[in-house]
Amino acid sequence: MRTRGCRPARLAAGHGHDAPGPARLRPPVPVSRDLFRQISGSFPTGVVVVTTLDPAGAPKGLLTQTFVGLSTEPPLVLISIDTTSRTLSSIQRRREFVLNFLRQGSEDTATRFASKDEDKFRGIPWVPSIVVKGVPVLREASVAYAECVVTQTLEAGDHWIFIASLDGGAVLGGAPLMYYRRMYLAWPEERPAPPLERGA
């Protein structure tokens, strides 16, 4: 007696668990501006003041939490600046800036550089950078600073992205100022973490 092989049953159109066809797929809808801010605000960051000089040599600066240590070989960093920032054009023209990583106790400095104050440097001590030719360094307010020269730019949505080589800088010490969900925070209790392995 011959046994006939079983053939897989065919699902009738419109039945079963077929993956939806292209006609059934909805285009992705971006999240709202408020939800985006809530999600990104759930990631605690340090507080960084970006400083530069305008074409007339006047100091300019703004606050940002968008900083990435992008590469170690060569040393590269990444920041992004809102297209509405009044400091943007100065960075685009000069192509040099200093990243000032603020220390605890510098909340007033952070608030000043997050504002639209016409004279953000009023009453704030700074020294001129040697590496990037006079750009302000906020030594007294910072745990570290990085002197940077722009190598690449990219417009992305409502921001400009700047990739820059890290040509100078120093670690000054102290505890960093933190930012989380629209609040300044003190540096928490320290616990050792394992080093990140390259290629992990």
Could you characterize what this model shows?
There is one protein chain. With 200 residues, this protein is mainly beta. The chain has a single domain (42-185), classed as Electron Transport, Fmn-binding Protein, Chain A (Pnp Oxidase, Chain A, Roll). 11% of the residues lie in helices and 36% in strands. The chain is built from three helices and twelve strands. Strands 3-2-6-9-10-5-4 form a seven-stranded antiparallel β-sheet, with helices on both faces. A three-stranded antiparallel β-sheet has the order 1-11-12, with no helix packed on it. A two-stranded antiparallel sheet has the order 7-8. Residues 8-16 have low confidence and may be disordered.
Sum up the structure in keywords.
single chain; 3-stranded antiparallel sheet; Pnp Oxidase, Chain A; mainly beta; 3 helices; 200 residues; 7-stranded antiparallel sheet; 36% strand; globular
